[in-house]
Write a structure and sequence with these properties.
By secondary structure, the protein is mainly alpha-helical. The protein contains twelve helices and five strands. It has a single domain (about 15-315), classed as Rhodopsin 7-helix transmembrane proteins (Rhopdopsin 7-helix transmembrane proteins, Up-down Bundle). Helix 3 packs antiparallel against helix 5, helix 3 packs across helix 10 (about 245-265) and helix 11 (about 275-300) packs across helix 12. The longest helix has about 35 residues, at about 100-130. It is found in: Membrane.
Length: about 325
């Protein structure tokens, strides 16, 4: 117990309680089944994709290595968020350890920005493949992928570290009930009796710097791709060029749209239930993870054939 100059007394908090959907308790019932289905689908589909790329020599190419990285990120994010949410829904296990809460916070912030950065690198890969096809083998090499992966890990891993550190150093004055299903930074920080302006400012600046710069570069890459495609005169060349980046574009569109919806819900939070942003945040961590391998598996002929050969070997 510690007394502060402002008259408040802080009691050391050893754990938090995730008190989610208290205004809409029925949501837990109808959300738990589709959420568990999406979780199993995401884990299974991403695992199959990873094994297929690892087993098929024809898929040992830079683009598929980047796709493997995306699948690994999806698996870690799902494991970090969804099992705990389901434990709350099914067994009312609301308690989460103080340090486990901030580890979850770090992984969510770090891996979300890593996914965004991976999309940016994949957009550059598609730009080179379509706009500079003859130079593609010399530009997009295994060394390029290794350097890109190191950049993705270092940039996002380092810049998101202060988010949980700043929150963990706050004084919580005995308040430990988080009005959320996950340890989101602002949901945790607002329990503190300290000034959280720095926390809010840092998350805002870093979030928009990382995600914003990635989206700008992705938009630039696809603008150049579109300009190059519109200049193709050979019959069927435009359709072939667009098909090479169709899967990637669909996922980027979905990724950006759901983030935009989440931001808009926070902006108009007085007009919607506080549970809506919480719901969107949970769904974003699992729907996209399930969608990613399915879109690539359906739309990419090489992956589809690789999965079929893998299933035949299993039989």
């Amino acid at each position: 117990m510690t007394a502060h100059p402002n008259g408040t007394i802080s009691i050391e908090v050893s754990d938090f309680l995730l008190n989610c959907f208290v205004r809409s308790p029925s949501w837990k019932l109808w959300l738990s089944l589709p959420l568990s289905f999406l979780f199993i689908l995401a884990m299974g589909a991403n695992s199959v994709l990873l094994v297929t790329i690892q087993q098929e020599a024809s898929l040992h190419e830079p683009m598929y290595y980047l796709l493997s990285l995306l699948s690994l990120l999806d698996i870690v994010v799902c494991l970090t968020v969804i099992p705990k949410v389901l434990a709350i829904f099914w067994f009312d296990l609301k308690s989460i350890n103080f340090y486990a809460c901030f580890i979850q916070m770090y992984i969510m912030n770090c891996f979300l920005s890593m996914e965004s950065c991976t999309f940016m690198v994949m957009a550059y890969d598609r730009y080179v493949a379509i706009c500079h096809p003859l130079r593609y083998p010399s530009i997009i090499t295994e060394q390029f992928v290794a350097k890109a992966a190191a950049f993705i890990l270092a940039r996002n891993g380092i810049l998101t570290v202060p988010i949980p550190i700043l929150s963990s150093r706050l004084n919580y004055c005995g308040r430990n009930v988080i009005e959320n299903c996950i340890c989101a930074n602002m949901s945790v920080s607002k329990l503190s009796c300290d000034d959280v302006t720095i926390n809010r400012l840092y998350q805002f600046v870093v979030g928009w710097t990382l995600l914003g710069s990635d989206l700008i570069l992705i938009f630039l890459s696809y603008s150049l791709i579109l300009r190059a495609v519109l200049g193709l005169k050979a019959e069927g060349a435009m359709a072939k060029a667009l098909s090479t980046c169709g899967s990637h574009f669909i996922l980027i569109l979905f990724f950006s749209t759901i983030l935009l919806v989440f931001v808009l819900t926070l902006v108009v939070k007085k007009k919607v239930s506080p549970d809506v942003p919480v719901l969107l945040n949970i769904l974003h961590h699992v729907i996209f993870s399930a969608l990613n391998p399915i879109v690539y598996g359906v739309r990419t002929q090489e992956i589809k054939q690789g999965i079929q050969r893998l299933l035949k070997k299993g039989w």
